[in-house]
From TrEMBL:
Name assigned to this protein: Acyl-CoA--sterol O-acyltransferase 1-like
Recorded GO CC terms: membrane
Domain Wax synthase: 198-285
Spans through the membrane: 7-26, 32-51, 58-78, 164-188, 245-268, 280-297, 309-332
Source organism of the structure: Cucurbita maxima
Cross-referenced PANTHER family: ACYL-COA--STEROL O-ACYLTRANSFERASE 1, LONG-CHAIN-ALCOHOL O-FATTY-ACYLTRANSFERASE 3-RELATED
Length: 369
């Protein structure tokens, strides 16, 4: 494990050096094609660096943070858009926002009754900040305990039904992503100027696919796909087919990009070649198509036929049930068969536990990944 942690440090030091270079490029070169050409080598490096890590947790999360989120933020930055284009950012804030699902807190001017050094103006945090929606430390503590319980449950996979194991893995992914994002964001927060962007918002309460993908599940990806895929597609489609149906083109583009990036993430985790079976891509293409159908159906049901929306007691089980059914059909088979996630997760926790024990007891015979 020492080798993997050493590689992790080297990878992230390289990432921050590259981001420092991008920060300098942004200071000297204006938005446009020239900035893109200067940043493009960094994008290629970010696609390569996750290959230096081999563990499912460290490698998968680094690939997600860097090869996907950071690269998309850099593409937007080249065009003068996105969170990295915020004026007045320090190099530390630039690197933090590029690396993790965080943002600089918005400061709103507000008149003050007391004189201040800025001529009577004070600054307050935007009350609409996403920080208000972040979970409490107690909720994160509960999730840590649930992850520990899930890891223990994996010891009994030989007697559990396969579908139940997949069901547990779904919650494992949910908890690990949420906890990892929160930990990474907390580690780089400083001076109260950086806030965590919520990753999930009670996805088990989704009333529709539009609600699930747009407002509740993996909001970091949703937030970056809107300016990268959805809005450009809608803008182009509006000129071709008009504004009424342009959002459908945006949905199609968004889920196609998401499908391609998820296949890339699975490659980072599995490292298997020849090419994948495209089951993961099919999962997102299917959901994109179903979401488009749902949007049309809503327009007919609510706007044209003046019918009330379905009650939550009906829509929530249907939405969540459809999500799990498609996961069992298309998402989890490659996750288990190709990535060997059920086996590797248990092994990595065992190695990590042994690593901590060896550190605590001063034993130098540390296991390797």
């Amino acid at each position: 494990m020492e080798d993997e942690i050493g590689n992790l440090l080297k990878v992230w030091i390289s990432i921050w050096i590259c981001l420092g270079y991008c920060y300098g490029v942004g200071k000297k070169i204006g938005e446009g094609f020239t900035r893109f050409l200067l940043i493009f080598p960094v994008i290629c490096i970010f696609l390569y660096l996750p290959l230096k890590l081999h563990s499912l947790h460290l490698g998968g999360l680094t690939a997600f943070f860097v090869a996907w989120l950071a690269n998309f933020k850099l593409l937007l930055f080249a065009a003068g858009q996105g969170p990295l284009a915020t004026t007045g950012m320090s190099i530390a804030e630039f690197c933090a926002v590029a690396s993790f699902p965080i943002k600089i807190k918005q400061i709103l001017p507000q008149k003050s009754s007391e004189p201040a050094g800025n001529g009577g103006a004070a600054t307050v945090i935007d009350p609409k900040s996403n920080q208000n929606h972040c979970e409490s430390p107690f909720n994160y503590a509960v999730k840590i305990l649930l992850v520990a319980a899930l890891v223990k449950a994996y010891d009994y996979t030989h007697i559990l039904h396969q579908k139940l194991v997949w069901f547990l893995l779904c919650f494992h992914i949910y908890f690990i992503l949420d906890l990892s994002f929160a930990a990474a964001s907390a580690a780089v927060s400083h001076g109260g100027t950086i806030e965590l962007l919520p990753l999930f918002h009670h996805p088990y309460l989704s009333t529709s696919l539009q609600d699930f993908w747009g407002r509740r599940w993996n909001l970091a990806v949703t937030g970056i796909l809107r300016p990268v895929a959805y809005r450009p597609a809608v803008s182009t489609a509006t000129k071709l087919i008009g504004p009424r149906w342009a959002p459908l083109a945006g949905v199609a583009a968004t889920f196609l990009v998401s499908a391609a990036m998820h296949e890339l993430m699975f490659f980072y985790m599995s490292r298997q070649w020849p090419p994948p079976t495209w089951e993961v891509a099919a999962f997102f293409v299917l959901h994109g198509g179903c979401l488009a159908v749902e949007m049309v159906a809503k327009r007919l049901w609510i706007d044209a036929w003046k019918m009330p929306p379905l009650p939550a007691v009906v829509s929530v089980p249907v939405t969540v049930g459809f999500f799990f059914w498609t996961c069992f059909w298309l998402f989890f088979p490659p996750f288990i068969n190709t990535c060997k996630a059920d086996v590797r997760v248990v092994k990595e926790y065992e190695i990590f536990g042994a690593f901590l024990k060896n550190i605590y007891y001063g034993n130098k015979n540390i296991y390797l990944w």
